[in-house]
Design brief:
Low-confidence stretches: 371-377, 386-391
Protein name: Exocyst complex component 5
Organism: Chloroceryle aenea
Largest sheet: none
Radius of gyration: 55 Å
Number of helices: 24
Helix content: over 70%
Order of helices and strands: HHHHHHHHHHHHHHHHHHHHHHHH
Strand content: under 5%
Domain Exocyst complex component Sec10 N-terminal: 29-137
Keywords: Coiled coil, Exocytosis, Transport
Domain Exocyst complex component Sec10-like alpha-helical bundle: 148-697
Distance between the termini: 104 Å
């Protein structure tokens, strides 16, 4: 622990009798001083002893340092002498090595010509045997020496090529015949070894044949025999992968150029086995069944591409990617050239059939939505005036929108996009994807959704119809759901195909145009539906509201809290609000409810101004408006609630005492209203004509 002087002195004083640190003892300064003096002397003695010991150790350390430095100097001298001896030895070794290399070069210079001369003598001897027409040498007669015979005949064959034909035609033909016989024997030997599974013998024979013209025939035989019994299952692609995996392990042990042999095997599999299999699968349905043809084409191309990916693991030379791509293209080129035309034709007929089958199930004869001339004029008039042109059609509650139809159309298009991605040339991919998208827009958006909107618009009754059934909101709900699905497919399946091409802007514009076109019709239909709702409310009020409701004959005997007309209107409004919430989503709900709420307020405002109010009738009107306001809360729109709050405040003018009219009119809710509006409500009081009331309000 670190030394602390205060603590040390404190402990010393505590141990000393009379030190004053222990309780019950008298403090004795003399004894404490004596103890301190003695202790200081002891410490001085101890310090002198330790100092002597330190000096002794320092002297010893200096002595050992000198001895160590002397020893290091001696070692450096020894090392320098050893290094000098090593340099001398290295120079001597280099000199000897130079002499040995020179001697080796001289020996090689003498031996090489000698070996060549001996080899030339042997070849001349064998050539003479061919000249004499009788092969006596053991190398030609002994079948076990076929390797040596092959080496000799191969060299003789090269020599014979240089000899003039007129003088050596006979011997040249004999050498050529023997060359051919040996070549056939070697190939036969290779074939037998392959059947026996003797890899070492196959490697030996292949090495000999490498210098013969028939080496390629040896490779062909190997490839042919490899495929025997390899394609026995139904899955030719899996069989091909297994075969190539097996051959890849073996070919390096047999041939000196394994990548070339393996590439030739793969080429043979593609051009013979796979091409034949693909042709059988596709030609069967090419003209009779477009759906099955496209499915088979996509499946076969995908499986071929997957096989190609597996084969990329093997060593096939420098540019294996291009090699395999060319093989795939050679198989499918005749089918891919007109793929998109087949795809579009199938998609068109299939989509038309799905729609027609749906309309047939509804026993509905699809109406023709005309274009040009009269129809365009009607459309412009309808958009500007929102008037229903032509007779209303009773759809019997049918929206003519089907999620099943939509899912089927989107599923067909999704599969078409997947096929397009796989089968289209990269340069044609955006253009082909756009054509498929155009088909989807035509049949889903135009032929199905747009037709349903047109039919729905035609089915909306006029605003003065009684007990009208309003089904257009169901059309809105289903169209909204369908558009979400349409938008999801656009983003998930079309965008990846066109994202980096000029077709992107074209597709986005086409989508924007079709959405805007639909939104115009949806807005028009919603607006006319709201008009119908207000019309229904008018019918209820006209049928249920009586003039005596607000001027009861017996002012003291009014038992109802609000009128029957109010109850029925509120019940109707709540149903419509719920229907709107169920039919739309997002900000559209608030927008439509705000519009309905404003029109609802205007209707009630104008309706209340048709009656005169007694004191009790005014109270009943306030109760009605309170109920309308409670109904307005269901809208959850601040503006609508504010309008009904103001209307409720206006109704207070019907019952307030004449003396308090000015005070009420200057209240928070009525202060900002036009004076004519306030006056119009005061005029509804039965006692308005009394001079007192008129005076107070003026």
């Amino acid at each position: 622990e670190p030394f602390v002087a205060d603590e040390y002195i404190e402990r010393l004083a505590w141990r000393t009798p009379g030190g004053g640190s222990r309780g019950g003892e008298a403090f004795d300064p003399k004894r404490l001083l004596e103890e301190f003096v003695n202790h200081i002397q002891e410490l001085q003695v101890m310090d002198e002893r330790i100092q002597r010991k330190v000096e002794k150790l320092e002297q010893q350390c200096q002595k050992e340092a000198k001895e160590f430095a002397k020893k290091v100097q001696e070692l450096q001298k020894s090392n320098q002498v050893a290094f000098q001896h090593f340099q001398e030895l290295d120079e001597h070794i280099s000199y000897v090595a130079t002499k040995v290399c020179h001697l080796g070069d001289q020996l090689e210079g003498v031996n090489t010509p000698r070996q060549r001369a001996v080899e030339a003598q042997k070849l001349m001897k064998y050539f003479n045997e061919f000249l004499d027409g009788e092969l006596k040498s053991d190398v030609f007669t002994n079948s076990e020496k076929i390797k040596e015979a092959a080496d000799i005949i191969q060299k003789l064959h090269l020599i014979a090529q240089e000899l003039p034909f007129d003088r050596f035609s006979e011997v040249k033909s004999k050498i050529a015949s023997k060359y051919h016989d040996l070549e056939c024997q070697l190939i036969q030997e290779f074939t037998s070894a392959q059947r026996r599974g003797e890899i070492s013998r196959m490697r030996e024979v292949a090495a000999v044949l490498l210098h013969f013209k028939g080496y390629s025939h040896c490779v062909d035989v190997y490839i042919k025999q490899c495929q025997e019994g390899a394609f026995l299952r139904n899955d030719v692609f899996e069989d091909a992968a297994i075969l190539c995996q097996r051959v890849n392990k073996q070919v390096g042990e047999v041939f000196s150029n394994p990548e070339t042999v393996l590439a030739k095997l793969i080429q043979n599999i593609f051009e013979v086995k796979l091409q034949s299999y693909v042709k059988d699968q596709l030609e069967e349905h090419r003209k009779s069944d477009a759906e099955q043809y496209l499915k088979n084409l996509y499946d076969l191309y995908t499986r071929t591409a997957n096989l190609s990916s597996k084969l990329m693991e093997f060593n096939l030379g420098t540019d294996k990617q291009t090699f395999l791509s060319k093989l795939i293209k050679s198989i499918f080129i005749s089918y891919l050239e007109n793929y998109i035309e087949v795809e579009i034709g199938y998609l068109k007929s299939r989509s038309a059939m799905i729609l027609q089958r749906y309309y047939d199930s509804k026993n509905h004869q699809k109406r023709s939505i005309g274009t040009g001339g009269i129809q365009d004029l009607k459309e412009r008039i309808r958009q500007r005036t929102n008037l229903p042109l032509g007779p209303s059609i009773d759809t019997h509650g049918e929206t003519f929108l089907s999620q099943e139809v939509v899912v089927n159309l989107l599923q067909e298009t999704k599969q078409a996009f997947e096929r397009c991605h796989r089968l289209s040339d990269p340069s044609d991919l955006p253009k082909n994807a756009f054509r498929i998208f155009s088909m989807l827009v035509e049949f889903l958006c135009t032929e199905h959704i747009d037709y349903a909107l047109e039919t729905g618009l035609a089915g909306i009754p006029s605003s003065d119809s009684k007990n009208a059934n309003l089904y257009f909101l169901d059309v809105v709900h289903q169209a909204n759901t369908i558009f979400h699905l349409f938008d999801k497919q656009f983003n998930d399946h079309l965008m990846p195909l066109i994202s980096s091409s000029p077709k992107l802007s074209e597709c986005l514009q086409k989508k924007k145009d079709i959405i805007e076109q639909m939104e115009v019709k949806l807005d028009m239909g919603i607006d006319r539906t709201l008009n119908c709702m207000i019309g229904q409310m008018k019918h209820i009020l006209a049928a249920e509201q009586k003039k005596t409701d607000f001027k009861p004959e017996d002012e003291n005997n009014v038992l109802i809290q609000y009128t029957n007309a109010c109850v029925k209107v509120c019940g109707y409004v709540r149903k419509q609000v719920e229907k709107i919430r169920n039919s739309m989503d997002g900000k559209n709900v608030d927008t439509v409810l705000m519009e309905l709420g404003v029109r609802f307020h205007r209707l009630i405002y104008e309706h209340l101004q048709q009656y005169s109010y007694s004191c009790m009738g005014g109270m009943l009107a306030i109760c009605d408006v309170a109920e309308y306001r409670k109904c307005a809360k269901d809208f959850k729109i601040a503006l609508v609630l504010q309008l009904f709050d103001t209307l409720h405040a206006l109704c207070n003018l019907l019952v307030v005492a004449p003396d308090n009219l000015k005070q009420v009119c200057s209240g928070e809710q009525l202060a900002n209203l036009d004076k004519n509006i306030l006056h119009s409500f005061v005029q509804l009081r039965v006692d308005y004509r009394s001079a007192r009331l008129a005076r107070h309000f003026s």
